[in-house]
């Protein structure tokens, strides 16, 4: 019952997003042009749930190359309005468009001649009348069965904010290197900017056996290194396969005696690999996609160099460098 109700909520929100998408028109282009033309910043403002959505939109804009700040309307009317310059653009969020504290602040913004973009569900509202551009976020219905709690409407506002950020990112030719510069201290930034060769294990640290080794020898190496896998290499040091804890469990669950199994029978050939000059974020993404914790690391010529383990990337939620 709970799952079907949850699906109904998501269906309603998808319906709302589809309505917003289908309605999107020239006013979106006008909003982007206004923001692009500003030599200073975008000021995002709103109250309540709209204010919380506005804070997220401002954060996304900042990380993707559009300087933005969130300004609370009440604080603005008690001194913080000084943050708004005539060269700024103001993005105001209110689904009803009749939030009195917000509209009162915007009358003062008008006196500073800063252009206003309204993100609201009623273009004919007081907020819509104050704005140079109105982005219509109207949705057919809220997911809340009472029709009271902002649900679909806030999702729609958030999605329009994401659309603005992404389109502005593309207009500004914002690159991954620029994104990393905006995240110098976070674990996300660390994951993005470090090459796999800087965090991989190599040499004696890597659990590995030759292809002619016995399964018992592979198991001993796996236990000795305690990394959950052992790599199998050929005579020239090339990667042949991998044996993981899971491979062993699956082999033994088939009822076959351990002594009767060979390395070739248990190992996985053509395991997932990653190039050493890619970013650690690429390794992490590959691990997540395939639900694995280890990757073989190759150079561009295909030679086996070592391995990267999830623990090499993530400590207790922090990025860890290996020296």
Short account of what is shown:
Keywords: CBS domain, Isomerase, Metal-binding, Repeat, Zinc. The protein folds into 2 domains: 2-174, Glucose-6-phosphate isomerase like protein, domain 1 (Rossmann fold); 193-313, CBS-domain, CATH 3.10.580.
Description:
There is one protein chain. This protein folds into two domains: 2-174, Glucose-6-phosphate isomerase like protein, domain 1 (Rossmann fold, 3-Layer(aba) Sandwich); 193-313, CBS-domain (Roll), CATH 3.10.580. It is built from 14 helices and 13 strands. It has helices spanning 2-23, 26-37, 48-63, 73-76, 100-111, 126-130, 152-171, 176-181, 187-193, 215-225, 245-253, 263-266, 280-290, 310-313, and strands at 42-46, 68-71, 89-93, 116-120, 133-136, 201-202, 208-210, 229-233, 239-244, 268-269, 273-275, 294-298, 304-309. Strand 7 (208-210), helix 10 (215-225) and strand 8 (229-233) form a beta-alpha-beta unit. Helix 1 packs across helix 7 (152-171). The longest helix is centred in the first third of the chain and has 22 residues, at 2-23. It is elongated, with a radius of gyration of 27 Å. 36% of the residues are buried. Keywords: CBS domain, Isomerase, Metal-binding, Repeat, Zinc.
Percent of sequence in beta strands: 15-25%
> Radius of gyration, rounded?
27 Å
State the end-to-end distance. Answer: 52 Å
Number of helices: 14
CATH architectural type of the largest domain: 3-Layer(aba) Sandwich
What order do the helices and strands follow?
A: HHEHEHEHEHEHHHEEHEEHHEEHEEH
Q: What's the count of strands?
A: 13
Report low-confidence residues grouped into runs of 5 or more: 316-323
Q: Indicate the overall shape.
A: elongated
Q: Portion of residues in helices?
A: 40-55%
How many structural domains does the protein architecture include?
2
Structural class: alpha/beta
Per the CATH scheme, the topology name of the largest domain is Rossmann fold
CATH superfamily of the largest domain: Glucose-6-phosphate isomerase like protein, domain 1
């Amino acid at each position: 019952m709970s799952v079907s109700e949850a699906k109904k909520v998501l269906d309603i929100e998808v319906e709302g997003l589809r309505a917003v998408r289908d309605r999107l028109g020239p006013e979106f282009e006008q909003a982007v042009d206004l923001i692009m033309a500003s030599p200073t910043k975008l000021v995002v403002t709103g109250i309540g749930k709209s204010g919380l959505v506005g804070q997220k939109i401002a954060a996304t804009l900042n990380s993707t190359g559009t300087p933005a700040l969130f300004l609370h309307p009440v604080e603005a009317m008690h001194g913080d309005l000084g943050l708004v310059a005539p060269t700024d653009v103001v993005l105001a969020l209110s689904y009803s468009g009749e939030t009195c504290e917000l509209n009162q602040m915007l009358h003062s913004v008008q006196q500073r001649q800063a252009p206003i973009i309204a993100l609201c569900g009623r273009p004919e509202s007081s907020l819509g009348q104050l704005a140079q551009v109105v982005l219509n976020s109207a949705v057919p219905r809220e997911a809340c069965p009472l029709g009271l709690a902002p649900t679909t409407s806030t999702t729609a506002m958030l999605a329009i904010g994401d659309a603005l950020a992404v389109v502005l990112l593309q207009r500004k030719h914002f690159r991954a290197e620029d994104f990393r510069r905006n995240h110098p201290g976070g674990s996300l930034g660390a994951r993005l900017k470090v090459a796999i060769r800087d965090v991989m294990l190599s040499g004696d640290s890597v659990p590995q056996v030759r292809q002619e080794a016995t399964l018992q020898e592979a198991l001993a190496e796996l236990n000795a290194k305690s990394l959950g896998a052992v790599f199998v290499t050929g005579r020239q040091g090339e990667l042949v396969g991998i044996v993981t804890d899971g491979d062993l469990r699956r082999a033994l669950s088939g009822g076959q005696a351990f002594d009767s199994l060979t390395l070739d029978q248990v190992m996985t050939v053509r395991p997932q690999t990653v190039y050493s000059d890619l970013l650690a974020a690429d390794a992490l993404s590959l691990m997540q996609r395939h639900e694995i914790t280890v990757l073989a690391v190759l150079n561009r010529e295909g030679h086996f160099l070592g391995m990267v383990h999830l623990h090499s990337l993530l400590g207790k939620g922090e990025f860890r460098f290996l020296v």
